[in-house]
Amino acid sequence: MADIEIEIDGKMVGAKAGEMLITVTDREGVSVPRFCYHKKLSVAASCRMCLVDVEGAPKPQPACSTPVNEGMKVYTQNGKAKASQKAVMEFLLINHPLDCPICDQGGECELQDVAVEYGSDVSRFSEGKRIVPDSDIGALIQTDMTRCIHCTRCVRFGLEIAGMMEMGGTGRGEHLKIEPFLKDGIQSELSGNMIDVCPVGALTSKPFRYELRSWQMHSMPSVARHDLVGSNLFVQTYKGKVKRVVSADNDWVNETWISDRDRFSYEGLTHENRLLEPQIKVQGQWKQVSWKVALNYAIKGLNSHVLKHQKANQLGGLASSTATMEELYLLKKILTEVGCDNIDHRLNVKNLNNTIAFDSNIKLDALEKIDYALIVGANIRLEQPMINHRLRKATKKGADVDALNVMTFDFNYPLNTQNITAPNKIASTLAGVLKSIMTSNVQELPDYLANVEVDEVANNIASKLLNSNSSVIILGEHIVNNEDASTIASLITQIAHNANSKTLNLSITANTIAANLVGFVPQNSGMDVNTMLAFDMRGFILLDIYPQYDFHDLDAAVKAFTPEDTFVISLNSFKDDIVAGYSDVILPIASIYETSGTQLNINNDMQSYMAAVKAPDEVKPAWKVLKVMADLLELPGFHYADSTQVVAEISHQSYVKHIHDECINLTSKHNGVSTIWQSSPYSIDVVLRHSSALQKTKIGQINSACMNPASAETLGLSANDKYLGVPVVITSTVADDCVFINANHATHIQEQV
Amino acid sequence: MNEACFKNLTKDQCYSLKTYEASGGYSVWRKILKGELTPEHIIDELKASGLRGRGGAGFPTGLKWSFMPRHSDGQKYVVCNSDEGEPGTCKDRDILRFNPHAVIEGMAIGGFVMNASVGYNYIRGEFMEPFYRFEDALKEAYEAELLGQNINKSSVNFDLYTHLGAGSYICGEETALLESIEGKKGHPRFKPPFPANVGLFGKPTTINNTESFASVPEILSRGGQWFADIGVENSGGCKLFSVSGHVKSPANFEVPMGTPFKDLLKMAGGMRDGAKLKAVIPGGSSTPVLTAEVAMTMTMDYDGIEKAGSMLGAGSVIIMDESTCMVKVLTRLAHFYYDESCGQCTPCREGTGWLYRILKRMIDGNGKQCDIDLLLGVQGKIMGNTICALGDAAATPVESFLRNFRPEFEYYIEYGKSMVKG
To answer: How close A87 comes to chain B (CA, Å)?
Structure first.
C-alpha cells in the first residue's frame, strides 16, 4: 500500500501519494493536535491547530488538508510548527470561558488536553469575552455554545452522516454562531453522535448533565441490543449503575456512530417499574419471597401441573427476541430435555409461514457499495438507523433507491421513486416485477404469473434491477402481518434469484437471528405460538414477555395464560400488570448491560459481551436462573460455570435453520381496509419504553394511526378520533385501504405512573 | 495615458457597443469566431505582454490561462472577479461603467482559450450602477450575436451571466466568490485543490480580475509586445491606479507601469490645501503603509513598490497628509477586517477582534505601553496561519503602521490623545 516515502521529524515512513498528511502521522503514531479534523467527516481545515512545517512551503501547512508527495519533509515539532500551533491555541482560548470546573466535558475535553501541551499559563487577553446565547435543541443534547470553538464537526456530521443539516453556522467573523436553524431542535435519529464528535463542552449529554466526571466511571465494552446491527459501544458505570453510553469504533459494524436509541436506552434500567424481587402467587395474592422459595415453587408447579402427568406436550416456551442467545438456547434446552417441543419466539406474527426465515445475504460493508436498492415495507431510517446509514452512503456514491411502501416516509436521501401501494397490492406489484424480469430474460413463465398485469411501476423496478451490477431488495417490518406476507417473501426470493440481487431481511429485529440459529422454534411436531394460544395448555415458561406489546392478539394470549390449571412461570425485567394477572411465579431477570450474553447481527457476527453492572437488588441474569431451574429439574448437561461455556456449546452445534416454504398465492385477495401495526421506533422493547429522555423526543412522541380521507370515511373516523386506541391522523400520503399505525406504547406506561 | 481599459473614456457614450466597436472592439473576438486565432497563439501573446493579474496577487495571466486543463472532458468556467472591495480601490467600478464591452470580450476570449462555454461576472453588491451598465452591455452583445450558442454560425459557444454579490469583502477572495456563486456562504476554500482543477461547481475554473479581462482585447489586437513595451521589466503594460485621500483631484488613472509616484501624485492635483505628504498606502488597505520619504522615490510597478517595502496590490493609492492620526487610521482598518472576517478559521476569527479591541482601548485612552508588543505579537500569530489572505491582510497594516509610526502610538498611550490632532 505504501508507494512513496516521506520524512516526518527525521524518520522515513511509507505513504500513499495524495493521502492527507494527518492520515500518515496518525498511522505512524506521530501526535499532531487537531480539532476540526475527524476521520469520518470531510476536511474543513479551519481550526488550524494541525499546522506543521513542510520543507519548501513558505507558510505552515495544515496536516489535515496537505496531500503527501514523494520526498516530502515534514516537521511536526520544530520551532515553526510549534509556534503556529501555540498561536492557534492562544486564539482558541481567548474567547473560551475556561469554565472547566463546571463543564461536563472536563476530563475528556480535547481542548483541555491540547491546552496542557500548547496553552500558556497566563492569558494575555484582557478584553471582555464573547458570550453566546443557547438554544434548547431537545431532550438529548445540552448546549453551552459559549464554549464552542467553531470546529463545525457537528455541522458536518448533520450534513454528511445524519443527512439533515440541523446545525449550521450563522453570522460571520467573531459573530459566527453554531446553532440549529429551526426552533424545534434536533430531530435526527443519530443526533447523539454530535455529543461524541464535539471536541469541547458545547454539546454534551442532557440526561448525563452534572452527573459525574468521566474519570470516576468504569468503561465497559458492550453491544447494543435494539436492532440488527448490534452497534459496539462503551457502557460507563459508577457504583454499579449505568451512567452513560458512548460509541465504540468498529468499522465492520457501526463504524464510529451509534443511534440515539442505543445511546440513551440505558435510562430505562433505573425506572421505578423495574422488577426487583422474586414473587409467587398464593391463593390469588402476590408474595415477595426468596429465590429459593420462588424457584422451588416454580419447579413444584411445573411438576404438579405438567411433568408428573406426562403432559410435556401441553407445556409451552415463549421468548422475546430481545433475549440473549444464551438465554434462548438454555430455555430451548430445558424444554426439549423435559420433552416439550412447543417453542417459539415469533410472538407478533399472524401468518407464521412468512418472512421470518427469509434470507439475508448481504453484509453491512457491502450494503454501502450497492448501486440499487428496493425497499419493500419499511420506514428504514427510524426502524434500522444504522443500516439506513449504510444505504445513505451508497446513495451518496450514486446508488438509486426505490421504495414500495404503504405511505410516504421521510428519507434522508433522495428516492428514485416512492411508490405508495395498498397492502393488498404489494404482492401483485412484485409479481409484475418478476414477470417483467423473466420476460426480459426470455424465461418460461410459471403459471401463477400468466394473468399478472405488469404496470409501469413494476416495469421501472424490473429494469432498475436488471441494469444494476449490485442490487439489494430489502424486506421490511411492515410486511410481517400483511395477509400476503409469505407470497411477498417468496416473490422477492424469486426476483432476487432472477435479477441476481442480494436480499436483506429487516422484517425481524433485535436478536431474532440468534433465535433462529439456536432453533427457538417448534421442534419435531411441536406447536407454534398461534397454535399454543388456541390449545388447552397446562403450563408456560415465558421469557421477558409483555403481552400487550408483544402479541398481535392480546386477548388470545391472555386467555391462553390465565386458566386456573395453567401454571405460568414468567421471567421478566420490568413489572407489568397483565403479566401479574396470569402468572404463578414471576422471576426478576437482568436487563441490558446487566448480564453477559451474545448478539448475532445481520453480518452473522457473534458479538459476546460481559455484564457492565450487577443487576439491582435480587435481580439475576436469566441464563443463571435457567441453569438453576434445570438443576432443580435434575436435567443433565447444565454444568456451566459461566455464559461463555454456553456459547461454546452453541458454536459446536450445526446451524438450526427454520425452513420457510416457498408459496406464492396471488389469488387470495384481502379486501377492505388493512391495518399495518408497527411499534414506534422508541417503544419496540421494554427498556426503550422506560427511557424517559428518548420518550420526550419528536421520534419518541410518534403515536398515530395514519389513513387517507377515503379510508377514514370507510371506517367512519375523523381527526379527533382514536383507532385501536391510537390518535387518528388523516393524510393523503397513505395508500388506499390502509391504516398505518405507529403506536407509542410508552404512553401507557406514562399514564400508569 | 489611458491606452487600454480607459481608451474610450472621453468619447460620447463610451460604454455603448457602437463606441466600442468603432474603436476596434470585438475585432479579436470576431477573428476567433472565424477560426483565425488559436488558443496557443493567444496564450503566447499574453505571456509576451507581461500582463499580471490586476486583482492584487499579480500572477501572470498568460501562465494562469495555460494551467487550465482545456482538453479535459466536462464543463469548465471562466469567472470575472468584479467584487472590488479593497478599501481604496474603485478602478473596476469605472471599467464596468465606462468600458463593459472590454470585460465581455476579454471573458469571451478567455472562455475560448480555456474551452469554457460559460462565464460568470461576480459584481460587488453595492455596485448598482456598474451592474446595470454591465447588464445593458450584455444585452447589446447578445443582440449583436456576439454571445450565445454557435455564435454567428461558428462552433463557438459562450454564455455569460452576471452575479450580484450581497455586500461581503471576503467574497472578493476567489474561492469564497465561487462558494457565493454556488449559493453558499462566502467561506474561502482551502487549497489544494486549486480552482483550475476543482473550481465552480467542482469544475475547472479560471478567475481573473475585471481589469485583467478588460486589458486582453487591446493586448491581442495590438500585440503582446506593444503592451509589454508600455511598461517596465517584469511589469508589462499600463495599469489603473485609484488615487484617493488628501489630494486635490482624487481619480482613477491609467498610466504606464513604472510611472514615478510623484508624477502620479501630480496627476491627482497634488496635495490638498498645500499640505505635506505623511504616508502612502500604495496598493489598498492590506498592503504595508510607506512613509512620505520612501514613497516619493518609488516607481509604480511591481518591483518598484516591492523595493519600497510594500506591494502594488490592486493599485489603490491612499494618500495621507500631516494632519492624519495613524492610530486612528489603523483602528479604522482593524475594525474593517474585524467586521469582514468570515469567521471560518481560528486565527482570523479571534485575532481580528483582538487587534481591534486593543486599538479601540488605546483610542479610548486606556492603552498600555505593553499593548504595542501585544499588537505585534497578535498580528504575527495571525500572519501565515489562515486559510485565505484576509488574515494576512488584517495583520500587515498593524506591523507596518507600528514599524513606521511607532512614536505616535506610544504618545497616544502615554497621554491618552493623538500626537497629531491634540
So the answer is: 5
